[in-house]
């Protein structure tokens, strides 16, 4: 991502990112287009070929059976199951509270003109559950649980054939109706077009690698997608009250996701900037995931020093970070002045890690500055707000004359006739 920092007065970098997480994306468009074409034309046969090629998996059947679900559940150690169910309960409770704010509507803005909308759950959605470097047990929770809360009739989950068995258990506990061992672009294609065994869905949600992301981009239109997800991001806004050790720990926690994770500190305190830079290097020395986190910090890490709070806010809103933590003296006051972010973590006790795992807010969030125009995955992702209207004769008298006049001005005679016809018939019945 290009950051024209020179456009922001009063902002200097103590550490600049060495590379761009966006421009470093592998050129995968052609490969993905071929995968999509093949799956559309050959269905399961193409999925099987690509599973062998990309995942070294030769499966007789793609769908996880009820017996296999139960076996995965039985193999899940009791504490992991309890923790997963804790996360499910919290995500469900928050999604239910969100859904309660999305209400149907009926109004009569003009006499006899009735309008409204319904909140309609989608019929079938596809949840892509990434395998990743680690068994991310929270991943299915975040995509499947809100869908079931929203009232989606059927949730199809796809996860790579080599995903940890605990991921199957997580999909099952979260409420997936059907689970398939299909990963990568071929999974997106199967859900988008449908195959002999995988049903076509109405919308695909969930993050994945560059191939998954590109596949979602290419199938968008006939089906919906939640968003295009890039590498993970975390930025921390801090003043002189910031704790360098804690800030470094939070940044490295996110950096261990991927070597392209974008991590940064934006601060008004130069001493904190220096201390955090040293603290990151110190913590990397004994971090077991330092190979990944260190590469992310080296290539995409950033520390920006701002001359005042206004400059800090302006630069943060430009970055529009996926995860944005606030470690300042008046964290809630600063939070109210911010506009662009994926999810906000107010005060030093609110770590991104809690949201990543189990606290209840969703961890599927906009990256690559998409926080400037959208929020993250939520229960509203799975419903449609569909409007309706109905009119009485008095309502037709209100809207037909201006509608007919406007249509005539635009030269749309068919529109004029349709608008006028109802008014003429109402008037004729009364004569």
From TrEMBL:
Its EC number is 1.1.1.23. Keywords: Metal-binding, Oxidoreductase, Zinc. It comes from the Bacteria. InterPro entries: Ald_DH/histidinol_DH, Histidinol_DH_CS, Histidinol_DH_monofunct, Hstdl_DH. The keyword rRNA-binding does not apply. PROSITE patterns: HISOL_DEHYDROGENASE. GO terms for molecular function: histidinol dehydrogenase activity. Its cofactor is Zn(2+). PANTHER family: HISTIDINE BIOSYNTHESIS TRIFUNCTIONAL PROTEIN (PTHR21256:SF2), HISTIDINOL DEHYDROGENASE HDH (PTHR21256). Belongs to the histidinol dehydrogenase family. NCBIfam families: hisD. This is Histidinol dehydrogenase. It comes from Roseovarius aquimarinus. The lineage of its organism: Bacteria, Pseudomonadati, Pseudomonadota, Alphaproteobacteria, Rhodobacterales.
């Amino acid at each position: 991502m290009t950051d024209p920092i020179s456009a922001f007065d009063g902002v200097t970098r103590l550490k600049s990112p060495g590379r761009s997480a966006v421009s470093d994306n592998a050129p995968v468009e052609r490969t993905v287009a071929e995968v999509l074409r093949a799956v559309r034309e050959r269905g399961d046969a193409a999925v099987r070929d690509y599973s062998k090629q990309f995942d070294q998996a030769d499966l007789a059947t793609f769908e996880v059976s009820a017996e296999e679900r139960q076996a995965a559940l039985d193999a899940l150690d009791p504490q992991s199951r309890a923790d997963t169910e804790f996360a499910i309960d919290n995500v469900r409770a928050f999604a239910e509270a969100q859904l309660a704010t999305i209400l149907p509507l009926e109004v009569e803005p003009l006499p006899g003109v009735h309008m409204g909308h319904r909140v309609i759950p989608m019929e079938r959605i596809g949840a892509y559950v990434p395998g990743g470097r680690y068994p991310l047990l929270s991943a299915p929770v975040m995509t499947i649980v809100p869908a079931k809360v929203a009232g989606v009739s059927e949730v199809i989950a796809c996860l790579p054939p080599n995903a940890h068995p605990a991921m199957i258990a997580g999909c099952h506990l979260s409420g997936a109706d059907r689970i398939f061992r299909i990963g990568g672009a071929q999974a997106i294609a199967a859900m988008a077009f449908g195959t002999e065994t995988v049903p076509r869905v109405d919308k695909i949600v969930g993050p994945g690698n560059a191939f998954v992301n590109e596949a979602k981009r290419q199938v968008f239109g006939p089906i919906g997608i939640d968003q295009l997800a890039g590498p993970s991001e975390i930025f921390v806004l801090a003043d002189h009250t910031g704790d360098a050790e804690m800030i470094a720990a939070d940044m490295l926690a996110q950096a261990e996701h991927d070597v392209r994770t974008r991590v940064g500190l934006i601060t008004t305190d130069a001493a904190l900037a220096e201390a955090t830079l040293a603290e990151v290097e110190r913590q990397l020395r004994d971090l077991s995931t330092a190979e990944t986190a260190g590469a992310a910090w080296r290539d995409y890490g950033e520390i920006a020093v701002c001359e005042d709070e206004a400059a800090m806010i302006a630069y943060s809103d430009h970055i529009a970070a996926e995860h944005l933590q606030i470690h300042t003296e008046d964290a809630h006051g600063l939070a109210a002045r911010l506009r662009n972010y994926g999810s906000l973590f107010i005060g030093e006790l609110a770590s991104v890690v809690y949201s990543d795992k189990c606290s209840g807010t969703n961890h599927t969030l906009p990256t690559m500055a998409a926080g400037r125009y959208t929020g993250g995955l939520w229960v509203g992702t799975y419903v449609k707000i569909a409007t309706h209207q109905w009119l009485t004769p008095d309502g037709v008298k209100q809207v037909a004359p201006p509608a007919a006049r406007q249509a005539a001005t635009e030269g749309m005679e068919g529109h004029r006739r349709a608008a006028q016809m109802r008014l003429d018939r109402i008037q004729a019945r009364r004569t």
